[in-house]
Design brief:
single chain, mainly beta, 4-stranded antiparallel beta sheet, 0% helix, 51% strand, globular
Length: 179
C-alpha cells in the first residue's frame, strides 16, 4: 500500500513539508535518505482541492506519487520548500544540504558542510537569493546556491545550533533569528 505506512519496520519518516501551488503535495523524507511525494488520492472519493478558507476542513487522503531513492546517504533530517525558486532543500546526517529542482525532479546542487558535521537548520532569504544553514558545531553559513559557493560563515555558539529561522520585519529590513 502506498500510504505513509508503506515505509516499513526498518524505515521511518524523519521530516515532512507541504507544498500546494496547484495540487497539494506532501514531501516526506525517510531514514534511508529517500524523498517521497504524496498527492491527494483520486480513488478515495475526495476532491483534489483543499478548502484553505476552512481551517477545520479535513485533508484529503494522500497516496504516493513519486519516490526519489536515496537522494541523501544517511537519512533526511529537515525539508525546506522554496516554491518561488522551484526548489526543495533537504538536510541530511551525511553532512550535506541537497537541493532538488521540483519541476524537473533532478538534483540542482549538493552543498557539503566544510565543518564535517550535520546541518541542523536552514532558511532562505528571498530578497538576497541566499541560503542560510546552521550546524551542530554552532556555525551559521551563508551560501549562494546558484554558484554552489559558501560566501561566509560565523561561529554563533560553541554548544551548537538546534535550528534556524529568518525573521522578516515590516518590509524595510530583515533580521536573522537563530534558535
Amino acid at each position: 500500500q502506498d500510504t505513509l505506512t508503506c515505509f516499513g519496520p526498518d524505515n521511518w519518516v524523519t521530516a515532512i513539508a507541504t507544498h500546494s501551488v496547484d495540487v497539494p503535495q506532501l514531501y516526506a523524507g525517510d531514514s534511508k535518505g529517500s524523498l517521497w511525494v504524496f498527492r491527494p488520492s483520486h480513488t478515495a472519493g475526495h476532491a483534489c482541492e483543499v478548502d484553505n478558507t476552512q481551517p477545520s476542513a479535513p485533508l484529503p487522503i494522500m497516496e504516493k506519487w513519486k519516490k526519489f531513492e536515496r537522494i541523501c546517504a544517511l537519512g533526511i533530517t529537515h525539508i525546506l520548500m522554496l516554491p518561488s525558486e522551484n526548489f526543495v532543500i533537504m538536510l541530511s546526517n551525511d553532512y550535506t544540504a541537497t537541493i532538488l529542482n521540483i519541476l524537473t525532479h533532478t538534483p540542482f546542487a549538493v552543498l557539503d558542510n566544510p565543518n564535517r558535521c550535520a546541518y541542523t537548520g536552514c532558511d532562505w532569504l528571498r530578497s538576497r537569493q541566499e541560503l542560510y544553514l546552521s550546524d551542530e558545531f554552532g556555525t551559521l553559513q551563508r551560501w549562494d546556491v546558484y554558484k554552489s559557493s559558501l560566501e561566509n560563515q560565523h561561529l554563533l555558539s560553541r554548544k551548537g545550533v538546534s535550528g534556524l529561522s529568518l525573521v522578516r520585519e515590516n518590509g524595510d529590513g530583515e533580521s536573522r533569528k537563530v534558535r
